[in-house]
Amino acid sequence: MTIYKGNFVWTSSPKQFESLEQGYVIVDDKGVISHVGTHIPPGYENAPVVELCSGAGEYVIPAMNDLHVHAPQYRNQGMALDLELLPWLNTYTFPEESKFSDPDYAQSIYSRFVYNLWKNGTMRAAVFATIHPEATKLLATLFDRAGMGAYIGLVGMDRNCPQELRNEANTIEAQIIDLIHHTKSMPLVSTIVTPRFVPACTPTMLSIMGKVAQEHHLPVQSHLSENKSEIAWVAQLEPESPSYAHVYDKYGLMSDSSTIMAHCCYSQGEELQLLRQRHVMIIHCPTSNVNLGSGIAPVRQFIDQGIRVALGSDVSGGHQLSMFRVIQYAIQMSKLKWAFTDKQMPYLTLSEAFHAATKVGGSLFGKVGSFEPGYAFDALVIDDSALSGWDKQYSPLQRVERCVYLADDRQIVRRYCQGREIPEPQI
Ligand SMILES: [Zn+2]
Q1: What is the side-by-side strand order in the sheet with 309-311?
Q2: Is-contact 113 148, C-beta < 8 A?
Q3: How far apart are CA 172 and CA 340, in angstroms?
Q4: How far is the CA of 272 from the centre of ligand 1 (A)?
Q5: CA of residue 181 to ligand 1 center, whole Å
Q6: Radius of gyration of the chain from Cα atoms?
Q7: Distance 400 CA to ligand 1 centre (A)
Q8: Distance between CA 53 and CA 383 in Å, rounded?
Q9: Dist. CA 97 → ligand 1 center (Å)
Q10: Nearby residues of 238 by Cβ (< 8 Å), 6 or more positions away
Q11: How many whole angstroms from 322 Cα to the centroid of ligand 1?
């Protein structure tokens, strides 16, 4: 059990921030919060207290959760953004991903990737690897060694992609089961079923992956309705399906409320209804959507219809691993949609976007992303003395706003995941 003292700011609900100045958070031996309050409760008076905010500019926020990111695209981060999705995949992304057949190459890129997630304050992520089982297991090991949380996906793809990036529908089941065994002893890392997207997966591949997800009670991640050419292609490949999402549903990939779908820029009507019925979580990736010219997802509509929306960096379609920047883009893109299309639909607020990156994204991992009893203590200590701390007039909310718009990794001074302080990973 540990008692932390500090200035805590978080969002229990999307509507507003909550803050506790010079308050106490008690964390049990499993890393779970048992008490949040202004005083130390009776019985704990003599326990040692860890002071998280000794400096004038320090406060504590929940750690970030990145729910859509491609580890093997890390080397392409911040470049090769001059094409739309489908030519971008063929020209830049598939050639880079094919290099992960080499475990040494995977080690060199994946260790940098995990290091930089840590650096940017992302303590948990849902990650696409590649088709390569050894490199994918290595990625899981790197997260586990770092003490960070992850769902790791061995990617299934067996059509419309280069030969060297195809795996076989009849071997994917055994490979996923091998990954499940590999991650079994890892407390914060597990397996997620990961068909790349409908154009790259034959019906056989999709149905086997759906069967594995159901038999092993695994969550599923994929891409959905990101780009208009992609959607037209899916309609051609699967003419009987009333929508793109129905293809995943038909193969059992959206069945037990733990499916996350990235993008959904053009999800509407029947497709949106299906996502709602199946309790699918939409992962909004605003940096990627603007970089690849995909579109602006109607996030307000999703939220108003009761669909959960979390955020993803989608590196390397997205150029930033920092979830502060992803929150910022989510708000800015939402304002553009409001200004250019429908002023009846209010744009995202800061607390809504922050809540998406913390508590909504965290819900994939259990009770994660908030400072409430029962939640894992995942936290970042921010030292904003260079940004706001010099001005005592700033409120806690104003300081968090400046953090989202102005801070980078230099302002993150300590990181916690499941109650443990996470040291700098070794590359
Ligand atoms: Zn993606």
Answers
A1: 220-224, 259-263, 281-284, 309-311
A2: no
A3: 44
A4: 19
A5: 25
A6: 21
A7: 28
A8: 8
A9: 13
A10: 198, 247
A11: 16
Largest CA distance in the chain: 68
Task: Indicate if the pLDDT at residue 392 is higher than 80.
Answer: no
Q: The tokens of 354 are what? A: 């922050």
What distance lies between CA 382 and its chain's CA centroid? 20
What is the CA(82)–ligand 1 centre distance, in A? 16
- Report the separation in Å between the CA atom of 281 and the middle of ligand 1, taken as the mean of its atom positions: 15
Q: Where does the pLDDT of residue 56 fall: very low under 50, low under 70, confident under 90, or very high at 90 and above?
A: confident
Task: Find the 69 Cα to ligand 1 centroid distance in Å.
Answer: 6
State the distance from the centre of ligand 1 to the C-alpha of 70, rounded, in angstroms. 6
Q: What angle do CA 299, 82, 118 make, to 5 degrees?
A: 60
Q: Say whether 382 sits in a helix, a strand or coil.
A: strand
Domain architecture of the chain: domains with CATH = 2-62+370-421 (2.30.40.10), 64-365 (3.20.20.140)
Torsion, CA 162, CA 163, CA 168, CA 171, rounded to 10: -110
pLDDT digits (tens, 9 = 90+) for 19-45: 999 999 999 999 999 999 999 999 998
Phi, psi of 79 (to 5 degrees): -150, 175
Q: Which of these, 369, 424, 420, lies nearest to 118 by C-alpha position?
A: 424
Is-contact 70 127, C-beta < 8 A?
yes
**160-185 per-residue burial string, b: 16 or more CB within 10 A, e: under 16:** bbeeebbbebeebbebbebbeebbee
374 to each of 12, 33, 236, how far by Cα in Å? 12, 5, 47
